[in-house]
Amino acid sequence: MSIFVSIASFCDENLKFTLNSLCESASGEHDIFIGVVDQNHSSISGWLEAFDKEKRVRYLHVDPFHSRGVCWARSLAGQLYDGEDYFLQIDSHTFFKQDWDKKLVDALNSLRVISPKPIISTYPPPFDFDEKGVPFTTLKPSNHIYSLLPKEDQVLTDESLVLKFHVVHIPDAEYTRGFHLAGGFIFTLGSFVEQIPYDPNLYFHGEEQCLAIRAYTHGWDIFHPRHVDIPLFHLYKKSGESYESHHWRKDLEEKRTVKWTQRRQKATERLSVLILRNGLPAPWNLGSQRSVEQFSQLSGIDYQAKEIRPTEIEKISLQEKTA
């Protein structure tokens, strides 16, 4: 069995670390192929010659000046998919547990008892580096589920349907049924790449909402796992600080003709056209297997009425389902 791993990296000094962690921590039970879109000033193709002895890294280098944002880059990475059985999308600053691949494949296959097209996704727990550059996890393992819900202060307006989400800890289950995807951790069947390809015309804000509602209306089911069952960790940026790995960094923006704020505005408008009118062409349109109204019933997010209502989170125990 094979796994395709999609990585879109933007001026990220941790890309090599992520590739090393991914490969060194794999169980060896699966053929792993990695699609990397590296938006950086210099290519790492020379380093890859020594690293990738089995030639399983499919590598594209793009000058960051020419980058159009994360969704554009992830769309390119998706084009490096070549029929693998499973699909994993991560960010280029990710730290893996040992046997991450076996853990994810076993978990997804267990969910196929209750869903023909399951997706495992959430915001991963954090990690950091110590003063010697050694990675360490910053939270104690928990049996609580990392469920994704809109932040309490979020509102929908005529100008924007973009929402911010956060992790809510849910006890006493193996999974919760979800309605949101985390761009930095998606694991599912490989056919997802072909059925729900990334829209390169989006930018950053609204990326995960777009992907989630498209997946849902095409018949895919989202599941959020327990903290202890998430076999990877994410290096989070600090709010309010500037990073060279921000696409909107000042030195590049000053040279660009199309500014990031323009791309953000166009993406915001595109999200509204998709959700309110299903007005985007294939393959970026909504599916026909479920409706936006059904999505609203599941999530409590009524895009038409511009309301966010409380919704009951469905807890799932696979042992009960299969008993």
Description of the molecule:
By secondary structure, the protein is an alpha/beta fold. The chain has one domain (2-236, 243-322): Alpha-Beta Complex (Spore Coat Polysaccharide Biosynthesis Protein SpsA, Chain A), CATH 3.90.550.10. The protein has ten helices and 17 strands. A nine-stranded mixed β-sheet has the order 3-2-1-4-12-6-13-11-17, with helices on both faces. A two-stranded antiparallel ribbon has the order 5-14. The mean pLDDT is 95.
Please provide a brief summary of the model:
With 323 residues, the protein is of the alpha/beta class. It has 10 helices and 17 strands.
Briefly note the CATH topology name. Answer: Spore Coat Polysaccharide Biosynthesis Protein SpsA, Chain A
Annotation, overall tally of beta strands: 17
Strand content: 15-25%
CATH class: Alpha Beta
Q: What is the number of independent domains?
A: 1
CATH architecture, by name, is Alpha-Beta Complex
Are there runs of 5+ residues with pLDDT below 50, and where?
A: none
Please give the largest β-sheet: 9 strands, mixed
Biggest sheet strand line-up: 3-2-1-4-12-6-13-11-17
CATH superfamily: Spore Coat Polysaccharide Biosynthesis Protein SpsA, Chain A
